[in-house]
Design goal:
8 helices; Fumarate Reductase Iron-sulfur Protein, Chain B, domain 2; iron; 2 domains; five-stranded mixed β-sheet; about 250 residues; two-stranded antiparallel ribbon; electron transfer activity; 4Fe4S_Fe-S-bd
Length: about 250
């Protein structure tokens, strides 16, 4: 199967980017978008050209690093599927495919398809963790946790931090990502002692870089982890709870 690729090329953050057109004549339906980029780079290297810079790691849909925009949609046409699992079976011989970096003001392009997603890291650094002194954590089997709450916490913990939700949002909002992290930790006993401080810090950091949420819903359509729209409500819930509790830290 021959595919005509329009790929975004940009040498560095200060350079003016542009689309360049390439052909991959031996693509197969089983290939993923990431494997298609692999094949393109093999061709470019063999011909003495400069390979396309892109990110990938596990290629099993759990690391979140492979995110690109395919035909104007984060990750690709198939809903709730990362780029490394977006197969080419939906394309026909000779079809054009446009591949670009994740598009958002908070994700500046570093090179070609690689973007700076440190804005997500800053939210996690602000409070997306549990601080327990080494040696003081109780044994896991001594901590009572309702099964339903544990399963719900795991659903929110499935977020892989790929940033597709932000790129899909017309406002560049990070509420689905932040809400998933807040919900996950608020449901667990080990996370509750920092709940108020966490909400204040993470929401404040989110509002520094990301846009406002209008509950448009495009984020849930591209989320590889299937994080529900209810995660967005958790942002305001946790924010208001922190305001109500005033100076208290938990």
């Amino acid at each position: 199967m021959r595919l005509v690729l329009e790929v975004w090329r940009q040498e560095d953050p200060a350079a003016e980017g542009r689309y360049e057109t390439y052909e991959v004549a031996d693509a197969t339906p089983e290939m993923s978008v990431v494997e298609l980029l692999d094949r393109l780079n093999e061709q470019l290297v063999e011909s003495g050209g400069d390979p396309v810079a892109f990110e990938s790691d596990c290629r099993e849909g759990v690391c979140g690093s492979c995110g690109v925009t395919v035909d104007e949609r984060p990750h690709g046409a198939q809903a709730n599927t990362p780029s490394c699992h977006q197969r080419l079976a939906r394309y026909t011989d000779g079809q054009r495919v446009r591949i670009a970096p994740l598009r958002s003001a908070v994700f500046p392009v570093i090179r070609d398809l690689v973007v700076d997603r440190s804005s997500l890291d800053r939210v996690i650094a602000a409070g997306g963790h549990v601080a327990i002194d080494a040696g003081t954590a109780p044994a896991a089997d001594l901590v009572a946790l309702d099964h339903a709450a544990a399963e719900l916490a795991l659903d929110f913990a499935a977020c892989i931090g790929c940033g597709a939700c932000v790129a899909a949002c017309p406002n560049g909002a990070g509420h689905l990502f932040v809400g998933a992290k807040l919900s996950h930790l608020a449901l667990l006993p080990t996370g509750k002692h920092e709940r108020t401080r966490r909400a204040r810090a993470m929401v404040a950091e989110m509002e520094t870089d990301f846009g406002p949420c209008s509950s448009f819903g495009a984020c849930v359509e591209v989320c590889p982890a299937g994080i529900p729209l209810t995660a967005i409500a958790a942002v305001n819930k946790e924010r208001l709870r922190a305001v109500w509790r005033g100076g208290r830290s938990t």
